[in-house]
Write a structure and sequence with these properties.
The chain has about 475 residues and is an alpha/beta fold. Helix content is about 40%, strand content about 25%.
Length: about 475
């Protein structure tokens, strides 16, 4: 296999360093990618800054045309991208196909939103001193956007950075996941082919420690980061005056009330907990079930967990593939063992083979145990019971995270109580916490981060409001 080149200023470049990419399921090499050094990152930032002189003046219809072309091209290469995602990350092929479809939607919506960046007219003649004055308020692009993306959605989360940034007229320097850089680089080819201005998108694969200059360089006006809290908050601390958008994960709680539609709740929660080996920021990790249905619910979720197809990610039946590497699986395995030593019970799963961790259901888990209070990012779910709805809400809120929470109920009173009281960015009713449609606002509170994704909302984050005051006297 030929090493994949990096993209700087519209050119595909070789560098002095290369890094192999391995399939986490069988640990076989699936590619090799050139790595950017400090010099190449500096060049990429400079190219993006220069390209901004063009993109900031580009018309909405021009941005729409590029993004719509990328969406169409991506949809037409669904199998190619799905196979690459599965090879790099071990994501089950059916889920990889779904990710390509989502990314195509994200790009199509970005194209549409490029033509919907509206302004307002604000009358200013509200006092005698401001008579005959009117204001126009519009949004303008910021400049160079630094984007840093993770492995778990190596295509769609890249789309969520690039689509809104380009729709708003910004330029981008992208640092993709070291585990899945080929997907991002192949995606970047589609932008070049669609006619995006030279230098408007630069892709610089490198190790996380080498991207510091993207964080500190004053030419970069905003950093959009998806990843771990430790890294994300460190980026914020070092970023100076630039804007920072952080999506930092969670340990999502789901409440199942006595009036829940049980079959639907079980199916949604099982999928939300175990699909993609639980490697989603909004994966179901903690479930609180009303005591009147707890015994039945627990027995059924254990039954469903045991029936889930796990193993080879290229098999269309597989739901749970490997975690991203054996180290990640070992860490969560140790958390499970630690919880058991402290009094928790394994109802099913708990064993590991390489990077493959069995779908695991735990009971009698104390809130301070790591499998409950930290982000597992694994196919692990804890089940507990509650008697009062207020108590269930409080237990969801004990988390230091606050991304999304799910509630299964038909009680309007409970729904709006939860909406008011839960300390999360999204309250999901009659679906698991893992529910997301790509155009909705997405982001969290507390340790889960700052700002919002979801194309229109990300465009607002990646643009600046500017007022024009007109005096007609």
């Amino acid at each position: 296999m030929e090493p994949v080149k990096i993209l700087i200023n519209g050119q595909w470049r070789q560098t002095g360093n290369k890094r192999q990419v391995f399939n986490p399921y069988d640990n076989k090499a699936v590619g090799e990618v050139f790595q950017a050094s400090s010099r190449e990152i500096d060049e990429a930032i400079g190219a993006a800054e220069e390209a901004f002189h063009l993109t900031r003046r580009s018309a909405p219809h021009e941005r729409h045309a590029v993004l719509a072309a990328v969406s169409r091209a991506l949809a037409g290469k669904k199998e190619e991208f799905a196979s690459l995602i599965t090879a790099e990350t071990g994501k089950p092929i059916t889920l990889s196909r779904g990710e390509v479809e989502r990314a195509a939607f994200t790009m199509a919506t970005s194209a549409e939103e490029a033509t919907r960046i509206e302004g307002t007219v604000l009358p200013l003649d509200v006092t005698p001193q401001s008579a005959n004055r009117t204001a126009i308020i519009r949004r303008f692009p910021l400049g160079v956007i630094g984007a840093i993306t993770p492995f778990n959605y190596p295509l769609n989360l890249v789309a969520h950075k690039l689509g809104p940034a380009i729709a708003a007229g910004n330029t981008v320097v992208l640092k993709p996941s070291s585990n899945a850089p080929q997907t991002a680089l192949r995606f970047a080819e589609l932008f070049v082919q669609a006619g995006l201005s030279k230098g408007a998108l630069n892709v610089v694969p490198c190790m996380g420690s080498e991207i510091e200059q993207l964080v500190t360089d004053k030419r970069v006006k905003l950093i959009s980061f998806t990843g771990s809290p430790a890294v994300g908050w460190g980026i914020k601390a070092r970023s100076g005056r630039k804007r920072v958008l952080l999506e930092l994960g969670g340990n999502a709680g789901v409440i199942v009330c006595a009036d829940a539609q049980m079959d639907h709740a079980l199916k949604s929660i099982t999928q939300g907990a175990f699909a993609n080996a639980g490697q989603s920021c909004i994966s179901v990790q903690r479930v609180y079930v009303h005591e009147s249905i707890a015994e039945y619910f627990t027995a059924q979720i254990v039954k469903l967990a045991k029936s889930i197809a796990a193993g080879d990610p290229t098999n269309p039946r597989t739901v749970v593939g490997p975690m991203i590497d054996e180290q990640a699986a070992r860490k969560v395995e140790s958390w499970i063992q630690e919880a058991v030593a402290q009094g928790a019970r394994i109802l099913c799963g708990g064993t590991r083979q390489g990077a493959l961790l069995e779908p695991t259901v735990l009971a009698e888990v104390a809130p301070e145990m790591k499998v409950s209070c930290q982000e597992a990012f694994a196919p692990v779910v804890t089940v507990d019971r509650f008697s009062e709805f207020k108590d269930a809400l409080e237990r969801v809120n004990t988390s230091s995270y606050g991304l999304q929470a799910g509630i299964f109920t038909n009680s309007a009173a409970d729904i709006f109580t939860a909406y008011r009281e839960l300390e999360v960015g999204g309250v999901i009713i009659n679906d698991a916490s893992s529910f997301r449609v790509d155009h909705m606002p997405y982001g969290g509170t507390k340790e889960s981060g700052l700002g919002r994704e979801g194309i229109r909302y990300a465009i607002e984050e990646m643009s600046e409001m500017k007022l024009l005051s007109l005096n007609f006297s």
